[in-house]
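Example for tutorial group B:
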């Protein structure tokens, strides 16, 4: 069965997942409350494992689409069922890292329950060790110690955890020193571990029977004990105690832009602290947010946060408000080449979002090849492939279009922007917002069948199409690049282009070189208001 995962199919899936999420989370709360002998709020569990629930539901939905739950068909083809033992995951970071294997594993689990019943499912009892995936390097530990020494000793200060992607920079250390009266920084890179075997009695007891009439939430809850990581069940008490011992001080305000996804220590602390009154401040950390008709990261983060900050847009729900993100400086450098920033995804679908997925990935590859073939310029084109191992289809398509194509991921991406005369993008993610927000000449092309945008974003996007920034094919983007080749600045700095760019970035890429002063004023006002 071949499924084209275009925007319409993604919308159908996201709607069904949204209807199942509350039921699944409520049942997880019941199971874990009983297991640990506690009574926690739904929000506690949403902070703790909402990211895992989201990705897990996507996998179950996709597997359900590919697999029939009709018992007669399963019995006809039993050889296609993978009957190996299922290994239990240590934590959500390990779960996410196994994305190439997950679609088959989830499909096999569903078929195993249908074919053999709950008691027939084989689960491995191998010893599992859970550790902190966010342990720091020696330099980061030194910087972290320095930051903790200069940090505010007032528990009513703001704790910053993973405020930026990547490593802590010297400039951030200097910023925290200047904010030392009211701010603290701690990426929670301390060590913790727990080694134990899964509780097979509990896990097998809670596998539920399913049939061809089972809905998404029923299927997800059926195989939940096979996939819920051990850090939330058997190892939770030990890990929680180690984490609380390492960081016993509760802060009244916590900010992050990265840590809600798989950072277990952060999630344990913040889930507990928010039960006691801590306010969680969370920030959009990439593209797609606010633009997509539905974006699960945005919904999850804004749902659990007390204050949710965006790159310019607002949902009008009282929680969301614009706040310029940490802005990377694009250093002045000689423009020595053009850049093409590419996107890629695995051929196995493991999450639903409005971007190229199996069924539309090939269109993106073809569009990229069209662009490379049709672009006519004496300026060298540096092609930056998306980080990760996704096979060679995109590279091969580009090389067929131009055997002399140059691929280069050697520089940090902002350094590559700085050396680029113009930056092309084969998708609409984070990178095009970075170049538009920094006023770097930008041309993007994308497959309209893979994306679906919010209604209030469409007029601004249409203006970008009118001025030649956005294109619906690689060949159209190349034609525009060729047309402005003679005087790129004349086009880019024209009033109509700059007006369209400014109107768009004010909503979706509102970067500011004055972000430090904006943050200082914002958070000191927050602290005054909450006294």
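The residue assignment follows.
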């Amino acid at each position: 069965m071949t499924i084209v995962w275009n925007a319409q199919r993604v919308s159908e899936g996201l709607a069904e997942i949204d209807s199942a999420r509350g039921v699944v989370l409520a049942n997880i709360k019941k199971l874990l409350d009983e297991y640990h002998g506690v009574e926690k709020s739904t929000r506690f569990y949403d902070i703790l494992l909402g990211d895992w629930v989201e990705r897990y539901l996507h996998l179950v939905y996709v597997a359900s689409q590919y697999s029939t739950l009709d018992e007669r068909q399963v019995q006809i083809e039993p050889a296609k069922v993978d009957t190996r033992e299922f290994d239990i995951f240590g934590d959500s970071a390990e779960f996410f890292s196994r994305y190439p294997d997950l679609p088959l594993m989830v499909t096999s689990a569903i078929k195993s329950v249908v074919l053999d019943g709950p008691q027939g499912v084989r689960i491995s009892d191998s010893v599992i060790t859970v550790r902190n995936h966010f342990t720091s390097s020696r330099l980061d530990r030194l910087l972290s110690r320095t930051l903790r020494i200069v940090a505010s000793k007032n528990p009513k200060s703001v704790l910053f955890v993973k405020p930026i992607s990547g490593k802590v920079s010297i400039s951030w250390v200097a910023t925290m020193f200047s904010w030392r009266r009211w701010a603290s920084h701690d990426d929670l890179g301390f060590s913790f571990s727990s080694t134990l075997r899964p509780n097979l009695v509990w896990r097998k007891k809670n596998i539920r029977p399913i049939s061809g009439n089972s809905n998404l939430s029923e299927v997800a809850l059926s195989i939940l004990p096979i996939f819920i990581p051990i850090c939330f069940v058997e190892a939770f008490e030990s890990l929680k105690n180690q984490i609380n011992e390492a960081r016993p001080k509760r802060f009244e305000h916590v900010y992050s832009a990265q840590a809600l996804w798989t950072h277990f220590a952060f999630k344990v602390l913040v889930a507990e602290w928010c039960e006691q009154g801590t306010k969680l401040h969370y920030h959009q950390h990439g593209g797609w947010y606010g633009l997509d008709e539905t974006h699960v990261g945005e919904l999850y983060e804004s749902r659990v946060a007390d204050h949710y900050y965006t790159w310019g847009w607002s949902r009008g729900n009282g929680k969301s408000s614009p706040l310029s993100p940490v802005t990377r400086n694009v250093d002045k450098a000689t423009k020595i080449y053009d850049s093409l920033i590419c996107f890629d995804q695995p051929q196995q679908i493991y999450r639903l979002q409005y971007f190229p997925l199996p069924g539309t990935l090939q269109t993106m590859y073809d569009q990229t090849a069209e662009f490379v073939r049709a672009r006519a310029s004496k300026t060298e084109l540096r092609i930056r492939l998306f980080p990760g191992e996704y096979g060679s289809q995109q590279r091969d398509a580009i090389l067929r279009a131009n055997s002399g194509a140059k691929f280069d991921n050697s520089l940090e991406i902002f350094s590559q922007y700085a050396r680029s005369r113009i930056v092309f993008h084969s998708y609409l993610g984070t990178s095009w917002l970075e170049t538009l927000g920094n006023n770097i000449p930008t041309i993007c092309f994308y497959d309209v069948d893979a994306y679906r945008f919010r209604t209030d974003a469409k007029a601004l996007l249409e203006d970008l199409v009118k001025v030649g920034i956005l294109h619906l094919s690689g060949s159209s983007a190349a034609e525009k690049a060729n047309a402005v080749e003679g005087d790129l600045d004349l086009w880019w700095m024209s009033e109509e282009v700059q007006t369209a760019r400014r109107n768009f970035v004010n909503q979706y890429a509102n970067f500011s070189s004055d972000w430090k002063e904006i943050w200082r004023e914002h958070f000191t006002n927050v602290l005054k208001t909450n006294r």
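The chain has 21 helices and 14 strands. Compare this with the pattern of hydrophobic and polar residues in the output above.
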